Amino acid sequence: MASRKKTAKKPTPTIEPKGPPPPREQLLERLRRTVPAPRCELDHRDAWTLLIATILSAQSTDRTVNTVTPVLFAKWPTPAALASAPREEVEEVVHRTGFFRNKAKAIQGASLAVHELHGGEVPKDLDTLVTLPGVARKTANVVLGVAYGIAAGIVVDTHVTRVSQRLALTSEKNADKVERDLCALFDREDWIDTGHRLLLLGRYVCLARNPDCQNCPLADICPSRLEEPLGSWQDRAEHARRLIDGEG
Ligand code: SF4
């Protein structure tokens, strides 16, 4: 039988900034208008469930993770319960998020550490959080910012990296270095919300392969825009806000 040929995934086009980054205050004003109430799209009820959901979200989508976590937390509602669950059963539940063996191992290891070393509470400092299995800076920043309101850094994922590069806020590719550049640019009080705003702009407007520059609220101040913007930035911000809020 003839074997089916695999189609190679289309690479993300390189879009190079052709000028300087937008003025910081203008950028912040537009991001605030576009995403007035930034939120984490991973369903969770507390710091531990957010920690587990964030570990599961690597190389997956929040939507997929949100279909898995209700089952996971119904079966094993506490760190102790999840830590002692049979590995194969956990693998089966998280299977559809991808890399299920590594992820099952990581969420059980992190839950065991939370239960045994931290009295059932997710640690509130970045240095301790990154010692947990499966937890790097991005996950730690999500948990600290969203669950505890602690601005230890800026959440940098693939969307934040791409948008920051296109806006000429960084020329780095490595997430830790992108985070360093963004932290130097923005005041600490803006770190949590700005990270989420850049992430949502990247997820809904500044898409990897097909950025919607015409309708982007930043288009007239973005050094990488591919098309001329339509209407005022306020109109475009409203358009993007509706899209992000699921109204568009
Ligand atoms: S104009 Fe907006 S969508 Fe286009 S590259 Fe710039 S930030 Fe991305």
Mean pLDDT value: 94
Main beta-sheet strand count, sense and barrel state:
none
Portion in helices: 40-55%
Rg result: 19 Å
Q: Care to count the β-strands?
A: 0
Give the structural class: mainly alpha
Shape: elongated
Helix and strand element order: HHHHHHHHHHHH
Tell me about this structure.
It is a single chain. By secondary structure, the protein is mostly helical. It folds into 2 domains: 47-148, Endonuclease III, domain 1, CATH 1.10.340.30; 153-244, Helix-hairpin-Helix base-excision DNA repair enzymes (C-terminal) (Endonuclease Iii, domain 2). 53% of the residues lie in helices and 0% in strands. It is built from 12 helices and no strands. It has helices at 24-34, 47-56, 62-75, 79-83, 87-94, 100-117, 126-129, 137-148, 158-166, 175-185, 188-204, 233-244. The protein is elongated and about 55 Å long. The chain starts with 23 loop residues before the first helix and ends with a helix. Mean pLDDT is 94; it is low at 1-6. The structure holds iron/sulfur cluster. Iron/sulfur cluster (SF4) binds at residues 15, 163, 166-167, 205-206, 211-213, 216, 218-219, 222, 224-225. Iron/sulfur cluster binds at residues 15, 163, 166-167, 205-206, 211-213, 216, 218-219, 222, 224-225.
